[in-house]
C-alpha cells in the first residue's frame, strides 16, 4: 500500500494534518494555561469576599476557602494599598512571578512551554486584574503541579482529537483520490495494456472522458498516439506482406509480359492469318498484367482507418449488400437471401462491416456463377452469449484445398482463377479491428460458410 499513489496520499495527509495540529496545539495550550490562571484569580477573589462580609474568619474556614480557590494566599490592592485578604503557610519559596496584565502572546506561549517541560512542583506568584473593577490588582500564590497536570490532560485530549481529525481527513482524501485520480489513471493504464496486447483491436483505443483537465489531456495524447501507431502498424504490416509478394508478382508479371511480347513480335513480323486468333490472347495477357499491378499497388498504399463503433441495425446493412449484388447478377440462377432479424443491433462500424459482408457475398456469387449451377447465398446473424455471430453461406462447390491453406493471405488465398486474395485478407483485418474474428466455418460439395464473430462488450474498463 505504501507504494501506491492513494496510500502515499493517505500517509502524507495524516502527517500534514498532524503538523498543522501541532502548530495549533502550542497556542491552544498557552491559552488554556492563561484561562486556568485567570480562573484561579477569579476564584481567589470570590473567596476573599467572605472576609469582606465578616472581618473575623475562623482559621479552619479560611483554609477551606483557600483550598477551594487552589491558592495559598490572596492579596488585593485598592487605592494604592495592598491588603492581604486570605493567607496560609507557603510550603516553599516563590520560584517565579507571572503578571497576566501585560503578558503578550509570545510570553504566554513561552511560559506555557516552559511549564510543560518543568516537572518539579514549584510555588509561583500570579498577578492579574480583579473582575468587575473590584480593585487595582489581585495577587495569589499557588502550586504548579495541578496546573501542569491540567495542561497535560488538555494537551492529550487535543492531540487525540487531532489524530481523529487527521485520520478522518486522510480517509476522505484517500477515497477522493481513488475515485477522481487513481481510478482514471488505472483506466488509462488498462487501455495501454489492452492496446499493447492487440494493437489491431479498436476497442483498445481510448475514448477520452476524464473530468480532470490534466488526465483529459493525457487521454487525448494517448488517443492520438494510439491512432497514429495503429495506422503505422497497419502500413508496416501491409508493406511487409507486399515485400514478401514482390518476388512472386515479379515472376508472374515477367511471364505474362513475355508472352505478350512474343505475341506482339509475331504480329509485327508476320501477316499470318492466325493473327486474329492471337490478338485476344495478347489482350488477355496485358489485361491480367495490368490487373495484377493495380491490385498490388492498391494494397500497398491502402490505409484502413480505425473503426468508429456504433450500434448498427445489421439487417439494413446486409440489405444494401444484397441490393448491390443483385444488380451484378446476370443470370437468374443465383439467389441472395437476407435472413438477419430486422431488430438485431450490433456494435460495429457500418461502412467497414458493409465492406466485409460485400466481399464475402461477392466471392460466393462469383463462385456460383463459375460453377454454372443454380445456387443460393444466405446472410444470417444471431446473438450467442457474449458474441454476435454473422454467417454468409452458399450452396456452391466448396473451396479447393490450396485455397483453404492460405485463405486470408494476400496474393496466395485467391479462390477463383486470376484472383489475388486481397478481399478476404482485407475483410479479416477489418473484423480484427472490431475485436472479432473471421473464419471459414465449413466448406465442401454442399456449400461454404464463412463466420464473423463480433464481441458484444464495448471494451471499457
UniProtKB/TrEMBL annotation:
<keyword id="KW-0067">ATP-binding</keyword>
<dbReference type="InterPro" id="IPR003661">
    <property type="entry name" value="HisK_dim/P_dom"/>
</dbReference>
<protein>
    <recommendedName>
        <fullName>histidine kinase</fullName>
        <ecNumber>2.7.13.3</ecNumber>
    </recommendedName>
</protein>
<keyword id="KW-0472">Membrane</keyword>
<dbReference type="InterPro" id="IPR003594">
    <property type="entry name" value="HATPase_dom"/>
</dbReference>
<keyword id="KW-0902">Two-component regulatory system</keyword>
<keyword id="KW-0597">Phosphoprotein</keyword>
<keyword id="KW-1133">Transmembrane helix</keyword>
<feature type="domain" description="Histidine kinase">
    <location>
        <begin position="248"/>
        <end position="458"/>
    </location>
</feature>
<dbReference type="InterPro" id="IPR036097">
    <property type="entry name" value="HisK_dim/P_sf"/>
</dbReference>
<keyword id="KW-0812">Transmembrane</keyword>
<feature type="transmembrane region" description="Helical">
    <location>
        <begin position="158"/>
        <end position="181"/>
    </location>
</feature>
<feature type="transmembrane region" description="Helical">
    <location>
        <begin position="6"/>
        <end position="30"/>
    </location>
</feature>
<dbReference type="InterPro" id="IPR036890">
    <property type="entry name" value="HATPase_C_sf"/>
</dbReference>
<dbReference type="GO" id="GO:0005524">
    <property type="term" value="F:ATP binding"/>
</dbReference>
<dbReference type="InterPro" id="IPR005467">
    <property type="entry name" value="His_kinase_dom"/>
</dbReference>
<keyword id="KW-0808">Transferase</keyword>
<dbReference type="Pfam" id="PF02518">
    <property type="entry name" value="HATPase_c"/>
</dbReference>
<dbReference type="InterPro" id="IPR004358">
    <property type="entry name" value="Sig_transdc_His_kin-like_C"/>
</dbReference>
<keyword id="KW-0418">Kinase</keyword>
<dbReference type="Pfam" id="PF00512">
    <property type="entry name" value="HisKA"/>
</dbReference>
<dbReference type="GO" id="GO:0000155">
    <property type="term" value="F:phosphorelay sensor kinase activity"/>
</dbReference>
<keyword id="KW-0547">Nucleotide-binding</keyword>
Amino acid at each position: 500500500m505504501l507504494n501506491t499513489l492513494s496510500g502515499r496520499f493517505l500517509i502524507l495527509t495524516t502527517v500534514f494534518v498532524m503538523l498543522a495540529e501541532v502548530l495549533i496545539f502550542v497556542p491552544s495550550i498557552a491559552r488554556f494555561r492563561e484561562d486556568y490562571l485567570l480562573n484561579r484569580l477569579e476564584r481567589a477573589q470570590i473567596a476573599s469576599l467572605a472576609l469582606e462580609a465578616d472581618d473575623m474568619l475562623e482559621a479552619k474556614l479560611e483554609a477551606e476557602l483557600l483550598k477551594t480557590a487552589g491558592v495559598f494566599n490572596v492579596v488585593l490592592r485598592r487605592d494604592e494599598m495592598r491588603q492581604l485578604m486570605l493567607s496560609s503557610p507557603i510550603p516553599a519559596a516563590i520560584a517565579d512571578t507571572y503578571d497576566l496584565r501585560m503578558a503578550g502572546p509570545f510570553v504566554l506561549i513561552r511560559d506555557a512551554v516552559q511549564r510543560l517541560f518543568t516537572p518539579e512542583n514549584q510555588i509561583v506568584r500570579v498577578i492579574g486584574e480583579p473582575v468587575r473593577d473590584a480593585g487595582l490588582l489581585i495577587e495569589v500564590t499557588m502550586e504548579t503541579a495541578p496546573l501542569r497536570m491540567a495542561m497535560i490532560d488538555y494537551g492529550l485530549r487535543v492531540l487525540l482529537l487531532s489524530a481523529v481529525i487527521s485520520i478522518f481527513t486522510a480517509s476522505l482524501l484517500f477515497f477522493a483520490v481513488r475515485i477522481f485520480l487513481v481510478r482514471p489513471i488505472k483506466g488509462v493504464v488498462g487501455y495501454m495494456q489492452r492496446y499493447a496486447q492487440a494493437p489491431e483491436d479498436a476497442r483498445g483505443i481510448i475514448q477520452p472522458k476524464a473530468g480532470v483537465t490534466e488526465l483529459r489531456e493525457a487521454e487525448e495524447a494517448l488517443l492520438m498516439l494510439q491512432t497514429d501507431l495503429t495506422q503505422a502498424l497497419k502500413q508496416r504490416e501491409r508493406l511487409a506482406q507486399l515485400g514478401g509478394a514482390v518476388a512472386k508478382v515479379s515472376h508472374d508479371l515477367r511471364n505474362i509480359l513475355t508472352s505478350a511480347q512474343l505475341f506482339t513480335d509475331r504480329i509485327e513480323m508476320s501477316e499470318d492469318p492466325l493473327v486474329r486468333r492471337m490478338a485476344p490472347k495478347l489482350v488477355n495477357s496485358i489485361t491480367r498484367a495490368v490487373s495484377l499491378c493495380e491490385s498490388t499497388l492498391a494494397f500497398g498504399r491502402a490505409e484502413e482507418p480505425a473503426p468508429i463503433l456504433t450500434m448498427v441495425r445489421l439487417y439494413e446493412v446486409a440489405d444494401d449488400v444484397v441490393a448491390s449484388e443483385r444488380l451484378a447478377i446476370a443470370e437468374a440462377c443465383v439467389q441472395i437471401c437476407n435472413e438477419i432479424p430486422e431488430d438485431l443491433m450490433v456494435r460495429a462500424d457500418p461502412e467497414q462491416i458493409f465492406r466485409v459482408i460485400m466481399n464475402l457475398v461477392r466471392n460466393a456469387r462469383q463462385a456460383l456463377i463459375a460453377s454454372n449451377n443454380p445456387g443460393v447465398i444466405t446472410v444470417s446473424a444471431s446473438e450467442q452469449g457474449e458474441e454476435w455471430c454473422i454467417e454468409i453461406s452458399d450452396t456452391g462447390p466448396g473451396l479447393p484445398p490450396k485455397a483453404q491453406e492460405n485463405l486470408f493471405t494476400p496474393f496466395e488465398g485467391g479462390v477463383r482463377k486470376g484472383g489475388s486474395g486481397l478481399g478476404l485478407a482485407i475483410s479479416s483485418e477489418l473484423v480484427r479491428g472490431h475485436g472479432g474474428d473471421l473464419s471459414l466455418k465449413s466448406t465442401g460439395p454442399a456449400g461454404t460458410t464463412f463466420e464473423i464473430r463480433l464481441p458484444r462488450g464495448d471494451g471499457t474498463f
